[in-house]
Write a structure and sequence with these properties.
By secondary structure, the protein is an alpha/beta fold. It has twelve helices and ten strands. It is globular and about 50 Å long.
Length: 261
């Protein structure tokens, strides 16, 4: 691994090897999203707690201060929407020249293993890796699924994560599931947990994050379960404690309650 790749990865993962990524890229397929209408305002109080920001180039340019001291993971796939025929029918939306110009720490794209567009999205990943490796830019593969909730189980997610790693992804983002250790054990690159659908309670969030971390995940990439919460800073503080301070679920609950006072 060359110096540039090591340097960028060191910005994403803290000294403990863990990470707390904050995604605000939801608008690329679902438009204005509740609590994310003004991205800059959404992330401002959360800046002290997350380690990297995951966003599109449009939001980066129009809403994020260039003086931000957090590394950027750039969303570079898209081309479909919630009202379209198939969310899996994505293409690469951003050139390598643009990626370099924006000085980002990493790039991310979705793959849809098992969908009608499996080959195309895996080809997107391979093409992106081929280009980014030349410049020492890590690629994060997002193992996306649509409405098929049955796909969020260990056997499927382990398959998708392993394929992403085999094609050269330096990091894989996937959903937490029961028997999550099977997903991590079969993937030779760091695994980051996605938030998925918004949970009913903060306690549910703390439980799955703690379980995933205990079973080998290196961190999280959580958005809606934080900034759609009425107390987003309190949730972020609690998650930071689980991820970077090895806090228990009870500790996280206490930190959340204390921060809400």
């Amino acid at each position: 691994m060359d110096w540039g790749m090591k340097n960028r990865l060191s910005k994403l993962f803290q000294k403990d090897g863990h990470c707390f990524f904050m995604p605000i890229d939801h608008g690329y397929f679902q438009g204005p999203t509740s609590c994310l209408e003004k991205p800059a305002e959404t992330i401002k109080p959360l800046l002290p707690y997350f380690d990297a920001l995951f966003c599109t180039r449009g939001v980066l340019r129009s809403a994020i201060d260039a003086n931000i001291d957090k590394p950027i993971i750039l969303r570079v796939s898209g081309g479909t929407s919630m009202v379209g025929k198939d969310l899996a029918n994505e293409v690469l939306t951003t050139s390598i020249e643009e990626i370099i110009r924006l000085n980002v720490a990493a790039v991310g794209l979705s793959i849809f293993v098992g969908s009608d567009y499996e080959k195309e999205t895996l080809q997107n990943l391979a093409e992106l890796v081929n280009k980014c490796e030349n410049y020492g830019i890590p690629v994060m593969a997002v193992t996306a699924v649509g409405k098929e909730t049955e796909k969020r189980e260990a056997r499927y997610l382990a398959l998708a994560c392993r394929i992403a790693a085999e094609l050269g992804a330096r990091v894989v983002k996937t959903y937490w599931c029961k028997n999550f250790e099977k997903v991590v054990e079969g993937c030779p690159v760091p695994v980051v947990m996605a938030g998925g659908p918004k949970c009913e309670t903060e306690h549910e969030v703390f439980e799955f994050v703690h379980d995933g971390m205990s079973k080998g995940a290196v961190g999280v990439n959580l958005g809606r379960n934080i900034w759609q919460n009425p107390n987003p800073v309190a949730v972020a503080k609690a998650l930071d404690a689980i991820i970077h301070k090895k806090a228990s679920v009870k500790d996280a609950d206490d930190i959340f309650k204390s921060a809400c006072k």
